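Hi all, long-time lurker, first post. I run a small reading group and we've been trying to get comfortable going from sequence to structure in the token notation. Rather than ask abstract questions, I figured I'd post a concrete chain and ask someone more experienced to write out its structure so we can walk through it together at our next meeting. Sequence below, copied exactly:
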Amino acid sequence: MDHRVLQVGLALGLIAASALIAARLRFTVAPLLILTGLAVGPHAPTIGPFDFRFVETTPIITFLGRMGVLFLLFYLGLEFSIGRLIKSGRSIAVSGSIHVAIKFLLGLGFAALLGWPGKETLVVAGLMTISSSAIVAKVLFDLRRTANRETELILGVIMFEDVFVAFYLAVVSGVVLSAAASAVGVLKSAGLALGFISGLIVVGRLAVPLLNRALRIASDETFLLVVFAALFLLAGFGETLHVAEAIGALLLGLILAETEHAQRIEHLVVPFRDFFGAMFFFGFGLTIDPTALGGAVGPALGAVFVTLLGSVAAGMIAGRRAGLSNRASLTTGLTVTSRGEFSIIMAGLAAAGGLLPVLQPFAALYVLILAILGPLLTKESERIYDLLSRLRLSALKALSRKRLKS
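-- Answer (accepted) --
Happy to help. Here is the structure in token form:
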């Protein structure tokens, strides 16, 4: 007898319970969903008609999770239009470049230190570079810091990272997913992917007046069908060119954000983003075997430490260049330490490309730790700054006394 509907209902029940707990704790739900997914799966028991192994429904949940990625990235594109990115210009470019350069180089160095191969190194550098836009935005709202001076810098960094990840995913997906073995083949594949992104942005901006007229549809049902058809067709077509499907969704969001229908699309898409996004995080946890996490603990903890150092250093440098105080600069660095959807997407890319199996549990632990630690550090940023200031003052006094004695 087919019990797949019951099993999907069970998965939704676990997701809903996680969301209720997160709401009670006033904490972001993403890490709880990953933990819930880790707690069930092939190693879990079967109790009566409730099969917590999800053997029959794992492919369904995985596909729903892929849809979640599309909606998350599509909505993110709607939030940050191409025009807004261009208008912010110099400040975003400088601050974002500092953050990306420091974290990316540290990621490359860390993966190289572990002795991982070239493709794996590129994936690890990417997943250690990009902050979670969803978690950072939620933390800023929950802590009521949207009016703080450093928030503008934080959002600028996030926007720059989102643009960077679009091009980086295009390059890495061209390297990892294509069959190109030679340097020329890899460059050709990556060039095709970058050409697709650049061409779509140019054509999309020119087509805004046409899109404005085409989307003047009175029925919300028909309107959604047209938008969703464009979303899945564009994402799927991009994947045939070795561009991660999530990037096609992001680009469509950026383009539609320029139209007069952006707010209507945002309003209608939010429920789909939340529902399928929750399936994405739960499904990711479901694919990880907890018994295989042991070998990833050391690398994950090392990556967390390196990420914290890189984020704080980048925050201090970018913050001071932007004229922020040391306190606000530290807050900037701590706020962008959270990792989430982009790191998981990079791990999924590694799995699709048949790279080292350790990357999946490594990414799961890395994301889980920083998804929990990032919001906590942001919340306690004032105390952390005061503590570091006292430690620095004590060190200076000790050094001064040592010089006087000598």
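A couple of things your group might point at:
Residues 147 and 305 are 30 Å apart (CA to CA).
The domain at 66-394 is CATH 1.20.1530.20 (Na+/H+ antiporter like fold).
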